[in-house]
Amino acid sequence: MDYPHIARQTSRVLSSYLTYQAVRVVVGQLSQTDPPLAIWLNGFSATGKIQDGEQYLRELLQERQELALRVMTLREHLAETILDVLPEMVRADIQQANIQQRKHHLERITQVASSEAATWPELES
Amino acid sequence: MDYPHIARQTSRVLSSYLTYQAVRVVVGQLSQTDPPLAIWLNGFSATGKIQDGEQYLRELLQERQELALRVMTLREHLAETILDVLPEMVRADIQQANIQQRKHHLERITQVASSEAATWPELES
Lengths: 125, 125
Description:
- 2 copies of one chain form a homodimer.
- The first copy, chain A, has helices at about 5-35, 35-45, 55-65, 65-80, 85-120, 120-125.
- Chain A is mainly α.
- Chain A is built from 6 helices and no strands.
- Chain A folds into 2 domains: about 1-85, Orthogonal Bundle (Non-ribosomal Peptide Synthetase Peptidyl Carrier Protein, Chain A); about 85-125.
- Helix content of chain A is about 85%, strand content about 0%.
- The N and C termini of chain A lie far apart (about 55 Å).
- At the A-B interface, helix 1, helix 3, helix 4 and helix 5 of A face helix 1, helix 3, helix 4 and helix 5 of B.
């Protein structure tokens, strides 16, 4: 298994996701201070191009430099603030989700087995 | 800014992404050992439903229990192995990307300014 490659890909996805979260925060702030600009940024960001955070920022820099710089500062701040808690949080989430998935699956196949067992007397009578 | 909320959302996205990466690893392994099953799992996973990792696993548990259990074990293993390097990696990525974005933007506006300046002599002559 190519762990370094998976780590690099995951890092890229996470960078783009933090860019997306930074845009959402800026839209939220603008909706208080400058609603028309909030609507503009929301429209600019809603075309799916935000999937690639770097391409998105290149285009935003050309359209509205001050907004792009604000998003860039904010994503760096988010990275400083929330990343350290993530490893423990994600590990706990996945462990808990795996336990839940196994539990529900066991309940489901036990119900199927018992409802099948319940039909035996009828078949035998 | 609601950091705990952003951290929770990011954790959920990361859990789903590790589920997707685990599926890709299992497809790769199966393509060596059981190509028809690799094709089946690839088809099952290609319908967009893997965007929600938990819903995807619930459906896979009903279709092919042994594959779902394998994906679940693997995503837990990936979480143990790669998560700890991510905070530093993502922070470095974002810092580096921000520097590049600012640099390219500066080059672009400097070029525009100098090409505008180059037209002055003509205007003055």
